[in-house]
Specification:
It is built from 13 helices and 12 strands. By secondary structure, the chain is α/β, with parallel strands linked by helices. A 6-stranded mixed sheet has the order 4-3-2-6-9-10, sandwiched between helices. Strands 1-5 form a two-stranded parallel ribbon. Strands 7-8 form a two-stranded antiparallel sheet. It is globular, with a radius of gyration of 18 Å.
């Protein structure tokens, strides 16, 4: 997928069509949409095309538990256009193909993973609004942020990596801690594949890190992150190191994602921060202040 090209006029028309609507009106699904159900999906593809000859796969996984629906809402109404248009203008990577995910909890939710196609045009928004904001989760202090890692590692095929040896990007976004593992029973139940054992989260991170630069964005406005900010940050840092990003204003998610990609691709962090307006720059500075460029080995191979 991803054969079309982004048109700002399409986005403007879409933004006008959602203005004034409630979150429940924009995200009208009351169950998982068949097009977003990952059960039985063999692969989601990001392929080069005439309009996108050097595609870059970008996955954005959004926590849709509890009050986290605000993240999907802000991205659908405002942030998506900013994210795509700034990537196209700034060109930290070429020809973005974006896949969105909805994330829940495999122990409590009916739909702990929802997955769009990789798209490059307004269909990104049209598919994003199909997300079911289940508003579930449980009392276990974590959500299944590692389920997107498994899906990306085992069920995506991306030309940026297969043709050019260049990793895609995977961002999970939420306010809770990472889980310790991903049970095989959950993979069977929600994806339909049959692994022989459970997966440790560190093992999954290594697996997906072969193809993707993996980041987690902590929504600091979320109730769990507000309750235990240090604990949430420390547990994520144990897994991801510097690729843990604090988001102090959820309406600036798009700008933070773009900035993280820029810095990871080697651009000067201070210049990236100063490229935004004052209010946004403060949010971005807080978010990427500890972030550095991706490390490469002697042969130019990116190390996770």
């Amino acid at each position: 997928m991803g054969t079309a090209r982004w048109d700002p006029t399409d986005w403007s028309a879409y933004a006008v069509s959602t203005a004034g609507k409630t979150t429940d009106a924009v995200f009208a699904s009351r169950g998982i949409d068949k097009d977003l159900n990952p059960f039985g999906v063999a692969v989601r593809e990001s392929r080069d095309s005439d309009l996108n000859p050097a595609s870059t796969a970008i996955i954005v996984g959004l926590d849709v538990t509890g009050s986290m629906g605000m993240i999907a809402d802000a991205l659908a109404r405002q942030g998506l256009g900013t994210m795509v248009e700034e990537i196209l203008a700034r060109q930290p990577v070429s020809d973005p193909h974006i896949l969105c995910m909805g994330i829940g909890d495999v122990r409590y939710d009916r739909a702990p993973l929802q997955v769009t196609q990789f798209e490059a045009d307004i269909r990104i928004a049209r598919q994003l609004e199909k997300l079911w904001l289940e508003k579930g989760g449980g009392g276990n202090s974590c959500e299944s942020y590692n389920l997107p890692w498994y899906f990306a590692a085992m069920h995506t095929a991306i030309d940026c990596f297969e043709k050019r040896g260049k990793k895609g990007y995977l961002f999970t976004v939420g306010d809770e801690e990472p889980p310790l593992d991903l049970p095989a029973a959950a993979i069977v139940r929600f994806l339909g594949s049959r692994p022989q054992r459970d997966f440790d989260s560190r093992e999954l991170l290594t697996l997906v890190g072969r193809m993707y630069h993996v980041f987690h964005i902590i929504v600091e406005e979320g109730s769990h992150a507000c309750h235990d900010p240090r604990g949430v940050r420390n547990r994520w840092t144990e897994l991801l190191g510097q690729r843990v990003i604090g988001l102090s204003d959820h309406t600036r998610l798009a700008e933070v994602i773009v900035s993280a990609i820029e810095v990871n691709e080697g651009r000067d962090r201070d210049r990236v921060v100063k490229s935004w307006s004052k209010k946004t720059a403060r949010v971005v500075q807080r978010a990427v202040g500890a972030l550095g460029p991706a490390r490469t080995g002697a042969a130019g191979v990116v190390r996770f």
